[in-house]
Amino acid sequence: MRSCCKTLIQSSLPFPSLHNSKPYYLSNSSHVFPFLPRALPSFSFNSSTPRAKLPHTFHIHSTASNSSSSAALGVAISSESAEDEPQDDPKRDTVEHLLTNPDDISRLMKMERRQQGDCEKRWFPYLDAFKCGNGARLSSGDVLEAMAPYMMEERKERFRTAVKNRSYSVCLVVEGLNDFGNVSATFRSADALGFQSVHVINPDSSKRYRDNRHVSMGAEKWLDIELWDSTAECFQVLKSRGYRIATTHVGTDAVSIYDMDWSCPTAIVVGNEHSVCRGISDEALGLSDLHCSIPMNGMVDSFNVSVAAGILMHHAVCDRTSRLGRHGDLTAEESKILLAEFSLRHSKSAISIAHEYAKRSKASTPVPKL
């Protein structure tokens, strides 16, 4: 093998060692193959192993190595860290924890938010202000200046790219939560497709669920999540923000998602399937502006909620790109504010850095003479 093959899979080598084993010749071939033709032992990972002890993800890469005398197969193992894994308190970053602790969702959003009635022509939730603990306020420009020395250029570029493709014109609503795993998957799809705003109605905190952090891949850290106790309250607020409510429903009055104009501000509502209830509630169907459906040609007539949400959001992005040229539609000012918001969510130390910046700025401000 070439020198690039740094690691050998010992369990698949001839026993007891490669040096003590005779060469094995393939039938009808003069080439030597160093492995014995026997079944590999099975391996299993202990599910109780703490995640903290497995900080890297390992991938096996197969590389063909050719020489004048033989053709050998090289196997290399590489290690790469999970770049976007949130570094904050693991419990606080899980979807289950956030959805059952509304106060933590409020703390997740850093820049000051608009009041419910303070809505202009289109909805954007943030004001150009960050309130520090000492009463001082920083603009989005101040926040970006304060955070700039503490962030790698690659991370800044990642934020800029994400913000460029973000939109509040279409948002996702999940009603009747039964499975945090499904909601985690919808969060991940929303973040990946450029949806910044997601809403969850009636999270059921009486049930116990597994940790779903690795289903969402930390997407909840970068989204604006709003929790609602009732469908009526959620829909009323969304309509006041200028959204039309489109509930997914299989019925004769449903409009195909392919016939909808997704350039209009729209709240997509999906519901969980459960043994007792199925899909969207009757209340949501009655309060919505329209019913939409995903055309299906199989024997079943519904998708898993996370799959349905992914299809709906992906089609909305494609339709908006076709009509408008792109999905992301934030203004320059809004993009700057959302960049500041992302910067403040970047790490646990971001808030302290902003506070120290405010103190230095206040100290350097000359006192006017009386």
TrEMBL record:
Gene Ontology biological process: tRNA guanine ribose methylation
Which Gene3D superfamilies does the entry mention? 3.40.1280.10
Identify the residues that the record assigns to the tRNA/rRNA methyltransferase SpoU type domain, covering every copy.
170-314
Q: Name one Pfam family in it.
A: SpoU_methylase
Any GO molecular function: RNA methyltransferase activity
Where is the stretch described as Disordered?
A: 73-94
The residues forming the signal peptide are none
User: Which keywords belong to this entry?
Assistant: Methyltransferase, RNA-binding, S-adenosyl-L-methionine, Transferase, tRNA processing, tRNA-binding
The domain of life for this entry's organism is Eukaryota
Q: What is this protein called?
A: tRNA/rRNA methyltransferase SpoU type domain-containing protein
